[in-house]
Design brief:
mainly alpha, two-stranded antiparallel sheet
Length: 271
Amino acid sequence: MATQAEQLPHLHLAELTAAQFIDIWKHFDTDGNGYIEGKELERFFTELETARRGAGVDPSHALFKEKLKEFMANFDKNSDGRIEMSELVQILPTEENFLICFREFVRSSAEFMDAWRRYDTDRSGYIESNELKGFLSDLLKKANRDYDDKKLNEYTQTILRMFDLNGDGKLGLSEMARLLPVQENFLLKFEGIRLTVKEFDSLFTFYDKDGNGYIDEQELDALLKDLCDKNKMDLDSTGLVDYKKSIMALADGGKLYRTEMEIVLCRDSTL
């Protein structure tokens, strides 16, 4: 169990800045996979309980496990047994900043993608870090949020700290989509369908009959049904409609391009 000295001091604060929130996220998401889970989750809840109560807790105690179960029932919105960034915002007393804007005001993946496409013009799945300020500004305008240059600069720097880990000046769509509410994160919906690049190329070529580099909305129906059958995913018609709606958020004028589809469906994509 973490000692008092090892605990992250921000956890006891009445309100967190964006930078402090990211400190907490990085502190507990030790493997950098975008989730607080397993031992990370147990450690987070231990330190959170200690910060709130001002005394140590015993993770091996039955009461602790019951409290953790109740905690997850309240905050693990998609019931996958782990905490995502958008869920952590609801747990911690984060200030009125860009994270809250994403959670409460940028509610649809369609809005997110509309802003993203303005900057990812080559459909690579990345935007350059020097374009990030404009991207965030567009999202804040869509959310009808007031902001000044100081706040926009703060949000921009915080996003860079979160996602440009290797300093290559590129920010990935799959990473930044984690800021969306869980139910609107279109990429999470496809975690159960992850193809190799070879499998994806074969599938896309089959549906891109004329070889023009994209498929349309009608072709997507058959593609999704085939994928669900192949992966033994038992989805009713409502589930398929939801999948289709999510992936069409990537479409540009009703066209789904190869690179955009690969970001969603490929587990070992090089994009």
